[in-house]
Design a protein that fits this description.
By secondary structure, the chain is α+β, with helices and mostly antiparallel strands. Helix content is 31%, strand content 27%. It has ten helices and 20 strands. The strands form three sheets. Strands 5, 6, 7, 13, 14, 15, 16, 17 and 18 form a nine-stranded mixed beta sheet that branches. Helix 1 (14-26) packs parallel to helix 5 and helix 1 packs across helix 10 (384-398).
Length: 401
């Protein structure tokens, strides 16, 4: 029997890899990261829109607000240090009707409270200074927002972790967990892995991993799929950088928006519809296990009862290109049906409480010899360095290393 690892991280997305990087730099311990897929960053990270978020939207004092602000600046420094292509291009948030102006004013105040500098309120005519094709009654310019390829960032985290002595094993989907005295035994199809401590960064599977470990988290992951379109090449000039609507404060989703991508092109989207498979990216992807688990959860039905109107609108945008483009034309009226084509999609791991409330803040819980990241949706990629350092400090404080 080989000597057990000191710490094993479950999940090779950007949060798990950032945690491995932070631990490898902080601790001289035997460190392993296991990833279910054959590649790193295969799920939420690999389907991310690539936005470096400013921290405009998050309630001051929350874990999201704190980690986004710290993580944003750390991400810019990291990309500069390792030559990862990025652009601190800024964005505008556009109010398309008078009724949205109070919410826009609240966003401006929140951004200032969250430490954003240079944020500027825009009158209708001033919107065109930043985005000539946008039409609205007012807006905000937020200079801290940027774009990057998070897969490249995640892979660099992994590379640095390995260089510092950490080990990464792919194709290691976790099947079970046993506690044998002072050791935690991780069962995969390929092997059993002995470890003294475990950090769960499994994203879309984080609640299941926690339950494998004997925990009883009060939340369940309910997957939401977001569909994207892209602008055809001859219409990319319609978008200079990033254009967002004023979000509905009742939901954690930001509404369909335009994002210039670091590798070229312009994305439009996403919507937010219930996914019937945690790892299924097609509109008609279905996992019987995932579907049964979702519909068998009382919190799901309470969510539906509270927000069915929003759900109907989002589903319409998913099934109808005309409805999707209609939402986009609220920001850029000259956009036509033929100006966009269907692109990829992503799955958001949204933690849901039994009362139907969506967990808004990051949620990291610890138990004896374990740390579980139970909710880390957007802006987790932006905040990944800060989150990784936070988890590494928790391990330093509470693990017997």
């Amino acid at each position: 029997m080989s000597r057990p690892f000191d710490i094993t991280i479950i999940g090779g997305g950007i949060v798990g890899l950032a945690t491995a990087h932070a631990l490898a730099e902080k601790q001289k311990c035997r460190l392993l990261l296991i990833e279910a897929e054959g590649t790193l960053a295969a799920h939420q990270t690999g389907h991310n829109s690539g936005v470096i978020h400013s921290g405009l939207y998050y309630k001051p004092g929350t874990s999201k607000a704190k980690n986004c602000a710290e993580g944003r600046e750390a991400m810019y420094r990291f990309c500069n240090e390792y030559g990862i292509a990025h652009d601190n291009c800024g964005k505008i948030v556009v109010a398309t009707k008078q009724a949205e102006l109070p919410a826009l004013e609240n966003l401006f105040a929140r951004g200032k409270e969250n430490g954003l500098t240079g944020i500027r309120q825009l009158k209708s005519a001033e919107l065109q200074e930043y985005e000539p094709h946008v039409v609205g009654v007012g807006g905000l310019h937020v200079p801290q927002t940027g774009i990057v390829d998070y897969v490249q960032v995640a892979e660099k985290f992994g590379e640095l972790s390995a260089a510092a002595g950490g080990e990464i094993r792919k194709d290691r989907r976790l099947c079970g967990v046993q506690i044998r005295g002072s050791e935690i035994v991780l069962e995969t199809q390929q092997e059993e892995i002995q470890t003294k401590h475990l950090i769960n960064c499994a994203g879309l599977q984080s609640d299941r991993v926690a339950r494998m470990c004997g925990e009883r988290p009060a939340i369940k992951i309910v997957p939401f799929r977001g569909d994207y379109y892209e602008l055809i090449e001859s219409k990319r000039h319609l978008v200079r950088n990033l254009i967002y609507p004023v979000p509905d404060p009742r939901y954690p989703f930001l509404g369909v928006h335009f994002t210039r991508m670091i590798g070229g092109g312009v994305e439009a989207g996403p919507n937010a519809v219930l996914a019937l498979a945690r790892e299924g990216y097609g509109k008609y992807s279905v996992s019987p296990r995932d579907t049964i688990e979702t519909i068998g959860f009382g919190g799901f039905w309470r969510l539906i009862a509270q927000h069915w109107k929003m759900g109907v609108g989002e589903m319409a945008r998913s099934l109808s290109k005309r409805a999707f483009v209609g939402s986009l034309r609220g920001l850029i009226p000259e956009l036509q049906m033929g100006d966009v084509f269907a692109s990829g999609s992503g799955i958001r791991a949204q933690a849901l409480q039994s009362n139907g409330a969506m967990v808004d803040d990051f949620c990291i819980e610890q138990s004896e010899r374990m740390i579980h990241v139970l909710n880390a949706p957007s802006p987790a990629a932006t905040a990944s360095i800060s989150i990784g350092e936070t988890i590494a400090q928790m391990a330093d404080d509470h693990f017997d290393l």
